[in-house]
Amino acid sequence: MSDLPRKAVTRTAKLAALPLGFAGRATWGLGKRIGGRSAELVGRELQQRTADQLFRVLGELKGGAMKLGQALSVFESALPEEVAGPYRAALTKLQEAAPPMPASTVHSVMSRSLGRDWRDHFTEFSDAPAAAASIGQVHRATWHDGREVAVKVQYPGAGEALVADLTQLSRFVRLLGPLVPGLDLKPLVAEVRARVAEELDYAMEAQAQQAYAQEFAGDPDVVVPSVVHQKAQVLVTDWMDGVPLSELIADGSQEQRDRAGQLLARFLFAGVARTGLLHADPHPGNFRVLPGEGAADPVTGMRLGVLDFGTVDRLPGGLPPTIGTALRLALDGEAGEVYRLLREEGFVRETVHLDADAVLDYLLPIIEPARVEAFAFSRGWMRIQAARIADPRSPAHQLGRQLNLPPSYLLIHRVTLSTIGVLCQLGASVRLRQELAGWVPGFAEHPGSTGPVPVDAAGSKTAADPTPESAPSAPPPAQIPKDR
């Protein structure tokens, strides 16, 4: 019910309480160990208590704090089950909702953005938000021509809150590291902070969403709502019903989760290949599951609805060909060639010298999903990979510390990891290799690939929608209607 806390002193105090709480729990843990409890049991309890406070505070604050919470939520699969289980519901809540702002504030934003006669655009407008997220909330309404629409309204002061939160969070982000083993949170916070201006620009978001909507219009697998109107801090799009992906994660059948996972993987790769834009916020709250129109089988006909294009990576030529080529060479065991490519792209600095076979050994477990015909993603697999990279005693950890992530790959890397995190939450069996062959430049030459024709969740080729051998250039900028 409360509005976005905008007073710097209030927000700072809430965020500052986090590291103080961490320190207090560390002292409590030391006392428990002195009292005879095992370090492992105490460590797990500390992790659980820390996570509970972290996600509670991030959810209350919205803004940059909420944004970080959403980004962290997709890595929940990497946590030990006894720790992740108790607050999985809290993470889902972070993805789907936040305390709404008062109707009077909503009306004020609408008036400033669309004019005092803003109600003339609508025949109906619900003051109760249908959804709320980090920098804005969504209201259901009826456009003046009768269409059902979603009206996204930005929180007043959201920009200042984002900057202040992320500045404060960056000061103690190292304390959050143990929550998600194997994930370096410092660059994650820095990357979210660097994209603040883009996240707040609804005109840029409208253009990106409309580009996707135009490209995927009539697509049998993916649905993107069209943009109806955009001005200042208000974005109006077609309304989209559907079941939140989080519900499928919790209660879906294995067939449903497999189909959703296949569509999610397809959207990740096909989206950037077809639009030159990479949807960069793949947490479950941004996806809906829709029934197939006229489909005989409700599972194989299921479609994936996609929301929130506030953060995108602009890749006019699609994904860099180096990704597909290096992946193909790694699967072929070409350690020397893989190492050469990594050095050329800056993943290995000029001053660093590594053993090529050791680098390949580091990569192979991570890319295992691309080796087999269908890979069963799971929380257990995610935890094994996270632990392998996080354990300071392991060779993988030591080698990983010597690798470098070039800035141009930072967002691609995070989106890929986030998508894998969601696939593990789904526990989906996915034909990832087929999607790579269909949409990622450089990979199709792999002898185990099926060529550049996408396939459906059951493995059937969809020849009606052939894919070019290489990713196309980005389409011309989408035309955003001011009123249609």
Q: Which regions are unreliable across 5 or more consecutive residues at pLDDT < 50?
A: 1-6, 19-43, 446-475
Shape descriptor = globular
How do the strands of the widest beta sheet line up side by side?
Answer: 1-2-3-6-5
Count of the domains: 3
Number of helices: 18
Beta content: 5-15%
Report the count of strand segments.
13
Helix/strand class? alpha+beta
N-to-C terminal Cα separation, in Å? 33 Å
Determine the fraction of residues in helical runs and give it as a percent range: 40-55%
What does the model show?
By secondary structure, this protein is of the alpha+beta class. The chain folds into 3 domains: 8-96 and 159-196, no CATH class; 103-157 and 197-238, Phosphorylase Kinase, domain 1 (2-Layer Sandwich), CATH 3.30.200.20; 242-478, no CATH class. The protein is built from 18 helices and 13 strands. The protein has a 5-stranded antiparallel beta sheet, with helices on both faces. The chain has a 4-stranded mixed beta sheet with strand order 4-10-9-7. Helix 3 packs across helix 6 (158-171). The longest helix has 27 residues, at 8-34. The radius of gyration is 23 Å and the shape is globular. The two termini are 33 Å apart. Residues 1-6, 19-43 and 446-475 have low confidence and may be disordered.
